[in-house]
Amino acid sequence: MQQHFASDNYAGICPEATAALLEANTGHAPAYGDDDYTRKVSDRLRDIFETDCDVYFVFNGTAANSLALATLCQSYHSVICHQLAHVETDECGAPEFFSNGAKLLTIAGEQGRLTPEAITEVVTRRSDLHFPKPRGLTLTQTTEVGTLYQPDQVATIADTARQLGLRVHMDGARFANAVASLDVAPADITWRAGVDVLCFGGTKMGLPVGEAVVFFDRKLSEDFAWRCKQAGQLASKMRFLSAPWLGMLTDDVWLKHARHANAMAQRLSAGLVAAGIELLFPTEANGVFARLPAPVDAGLRAKGWRFYTFIGAGGARLMCGWDTLPATVDALLADIRALSGAADAL
Ligand SMILES: Cc1ncc(COP(=O)(O)O)c(C=O)c1O
Description:
By secondary structure, the protein is an alpha/beta fold. The protein contains 13 helices and 10 strands. It folds into 2 domains: 15-251, Aspartate Aminotransferase, domain 2 (3-Layer(aba) Sandwich); 253-345, Alpha-Beta Complex (Aspartate Aminotransferase, domain 1). The structure holds pyridoxal-5'-phosphate (PLP).
């Protein structure tokens, strides 16, 4: 079966999550999250984050982000985000919908990162009542272009936000890849750095489905269960959403898989550079962004490879997952080298 680089959600369920899922499939258990699996995973997340956070499980990242952002603001508020942020480009207006109209205010930033200067500029630009009042900020870790915020960068941004009266949300669809790459305590790039709520991605790290919304500021999670229910995001058989996390969070399996995906991206990145292909961004986690010459792009697609070119700032996005094989990376590189050689000979 051919593997692909289109997205880390092309991969299947990792064995540890599968085992935990099957183990949960015995007998009856209370519904709607009142079960032992959900309690255990929530406690495990509290251990991992070294704090008494509030945890909810929803089906996907769009819901996690939108519902979490809605806790930060009223309908007349705004939320600052990067212009390439998934909440802005790929969530079909869900953040605005679930917040009853709060507006996303986008800003530019090198290599997918927000900067304190740009945040300050957009927040202080206007304070009149004709403009939606800035109240939230969201940053993505790892960013949409595969780069990372270092712990001090998260802290500086969150500090800027707090001084400007904004609450801080982190889109952690690839949080595992960030923790694995930075080799930091999860707390150091979240609540200790000033993040109020994290959407911790499960799907891309090898779960069948589901993301955890982790509230470090527990005041924000008041009534969150009702938001989830109203949005159709409260799983009745919650144990099947939560139990796979147990397999993932035991013995640092999540970090093992994320480290593997990151290593495959490094292998791919190095191979592309050796083949003379230009990288658009530094490879810091599990995504590689490259400028493929048109004949190479077309040739790869003709050979059946799948990858996206509409994400981020253009170019080809090549994502590695927990199951990406070194041989798959090498096969893609071999095709790229052959196609580049053929293009050069034209
Ligand atoms: C940065 C980011 N955030 C969130 C998501 C989650 O989106 P979905 O609603 O498809 O689970 C994705 C998935 O592509 C993503 O890349």
